[in-house]
Amino acid sequence: MEPLQGLIRENCSALPVCLGDFYKCFKEPKCQGKSKRICAFTCGREAYAKCRKLRKSGTSFLAFIDSDHKRITESRLGPIVSATPASGMEKFFTYPVIKDIAAHCGLQSGLMRLVSETLKRYWNSPRKARAMQLMQQLSFNPDFRGNETEKQNHLLLYLSRYLPVRWMSLRDVVLYSHEFAPLQFAFCSVLDPGLVTPELLASVIDKIAAVASVNEIEIKADWSLTLRSLIRCARRPQNKPPVPPLQCRQRPSMDVPSLFAVAPDETTFELLLPYCDIKSGPIEKDGSTVLHLAAARGWSKALAVTLDSKAGPALLLNATRDVQLGSSAHFSETLLKMTAVHEAAHASSPECLETLLAHGAAIERTATLEVMGHTLGMAFEKDDAIEHSGVLQEVRPLHLASERGCLRCIQVFLLRNASVNAEMVLLHNKLQWQHNFTHFGITGDIIPTPISNCTLRPLDLAIQSGCQECILALLGAGAKSDELTLPGRLAAEDQTSPLLQLLPDAKLKTCSSWYVRKGGHFLQSLRMIASLGQFQEAMTDSEVSVKPQPKET
After folding, report:
1. Is the distance from CB of 356 to CB of 344 less than 8 angstroms?
2. Could you say which of 26, 39, 237, 384 has the lowest number of CB atoms within 10 Å?
3. Contact partners, residue 183, CB within 8 Å, separation at least 6
4. What's the number of CA atoms in the CB half-sphere (13 Å) around residue 114?
5. Distance between CA atoms of 26 and 34, rounded to whole angstroms?
6. Contact 119, 135 (CB under 8 A)
7. Does residue 361 contact residue 343 with C-beta atoms inside 8 Å?
């Protein structure tokens, strides 16, 4: 048994199987011009006679050509001959041996009939797992490699009646093993393309994310191939339109993230592009397009593929989204009117910026960032409750690049003549809830009262980022240096002090609402502003707690 398996794995054509030179006969000149069916029948009869003569002369074979000549050919396949185990040799064709035959022997070996019969025996029994394991071995067969479609692949067409999707659900077959990846398109192509659902694609994406987290590169490649095959299958016929944004998610609800949002890597993101309609409008509830999602992750290649494709959302280049970054018991954070260029600058991705701007994206669009405080999670539940909010207005992409200290991003903007002295506004507002009593009940409005504001330019932000090259690049492009704004809580040992020596003649002023720590960003300052209500509430509670209690009488 072991030598037989070793021979099959090393060189299946060296097995003692007599086919009587059938394939050689079929290629001889005597078959030229004749019907393939007639020629195959004639060659099959001659091959069987030759093998029978050799057997009578005492030559031993493991298997020899089948006496039933009707099995020699199939339409569209050309000649395929089947071999039958010789008398007394059946015991050697055990299940492990047939698994090796499925993986290493081609159609012209004559032994594939044994595989098909074994598949038929197992898939119609309680031991279907063995049939799945046998089909799994076929994914390694040399006659399959390089052929993805069933029409091109003789092996799968020969076995099409035994494919697992004939007796199991497509979902079970797809998720059975990553090693089925080369076979998935053939499995799917015999079914209705409508069986490839977004829920099934989401399950495959989960598999990709799971193996990516443990750095299983080969297994991840197999699941990516499975995803590609399923999407190709779902697009049959080729003119089938992509699914609308509402369907491009695990469940048809805009509250559920899209498949693009859960894509764990750039390759998966690109594979999804033909499946979903990406140019009809936003793909997410908050207004995000695929451009926002790709730019926010710094996926420049996916961004370029998206914009260069026929379905590229060229009309959505300057689309904006309003993002709820997070909400806690103490404050809520909101980004308003963010474009894909803002996202790329915030992600410090010069490659994404170059791609977007090369396709005509606007460079001077403005966004707003707001953080509103909640006093101990009970905002505005009491009369005349006071909260605080920090707001950044007129935020341009260059401001974000300067604050991040991304030199290459700044250079991209300066090459396209971005406004180097554009000002954004940092506001500190006090928010007060005012009740209105109407016949519909108690309603109210939030009344903002400005406490302080200041303006910040890209140069101010670059100084606080600690990027000396960024400062020099902005100065070289004409940034004004006669007056600089510094954070109001700037510590003496702050890293910006050596950088200020580059501008000894600049007039310095402070912004009391601008809080910066080493490595801090805009959100840090806005959160500290929004948290002022917490400190005031805590002080009030402490004052109440230390009041002396009246003595009992």
Report:
1. yes
2. 237
3. 135, 138, 139, 144, 156
4. 29
5. 10
6. yes
7. no
At residue 374, φ and ψ (nearest 5 deg) are -125, 115
**E strand map for 28-93:** 63-65, 73-74, 78-79, 83-85
CB atoms within 10 A of CB 84: 19
Residue segments in the chain with a per-residue pLDDT below the cut of 70:
1, 33-34, 69-78, 144-154, 310-315, 325-331, 374-385, 433-444, 489-497, 517-521, 532-553
Query: Are 333 and 523 spatial neighbours (Cβ–Cβ below 8 Å)?
Result: yes
Domains defined along the chain, listed by start: 2-162 (no CATH), 317-490+497-545 (1.25.40.20)
Residues 6+ apart with CB under 8 A from 548: none
Amino acid in the structure at residue 208 = I
Residues 6+ apart with CB under 8 A from 351: 298, 300
Rounded Cα distance, 425 and 412, in Å:
24
Q: Which of 328, 383, 321, 318 minimizes the C-alpha distance to 356?
A: 318
Helix (H, G, I), strand (E, B) or coil at 301: helix
Q: How do strand 17-18 and strand 63-65 relate by DSSP bridges?
A: parallel
Q: What are phi and psi of 63, to 5 degrees?
A: -155, 160
Please report which helix (H) or strand (E) contains residue 326, including its range: strand 321-327
User: Rounded to the nearest 5°, which phi and psi values hold at 78?
Assistant: 80, -170
- C-alpha 38/C-alpha 175 separation (Å) is 44
Q: What torsion, rounded to 10 degrees, do the Cα atoms 294, 297, 301, 304 define? A: 30
Q: How many CB atoms lie within 10 A of CB 404?
A: 21
According to the model, what pLDDT value does residue 536 have? 43
- The β-bridge relationship of strands 78-79 and 83-85 is unpaired
Tokens encoding 303:
């961004």
Peptide bond into 142 cis (omega under 30): no
Q: Which amino acid is at 204?
A: V
Which residue from 267, 149, 278 is spatially nearest to 205, judged by alpha carbons? 267
Task: Write the pLDDT tens digit of every residue in 349-383.
Answer: 999 999 999 999 999 999 998 887 754 334 444 55
3-state SS class at 428 = strand
The whole-angstrom separation of Cα 469 and Cα 76 is 68
Say which residues have a Cβ less than 8 Å from residue 424's Cβ, sequence separation at least 6: 366, 392, 393, 394, 395, 396, 399, 455, 456, 457
Q: For residue 75, how many C-alpha atoms fall within 13 Å in the half-sphere facing its CB?
A: 0
Q: Which two tokens stand for residue 442?
A: 């108690």
- The alpha carbon of residue 172 and the mean position of all alpha carbons in its chain are separated, in whole angstroms, by 22
Instruction: Name the token pair of 15.
Output: 């097995």
SS3 letters across 231-259: HHHHCCCCCCCCECHHHCECCCCCCCCEH
Neighbours of 325 (CB within 10 A): 12
Q: What pTM did the predictor assign? A: 0.79
| Sign of the CA dihedral running 284, 289, 290, 293 | negative
Backbone angles phi, psi at 86, to 5 degrees: -70, 160
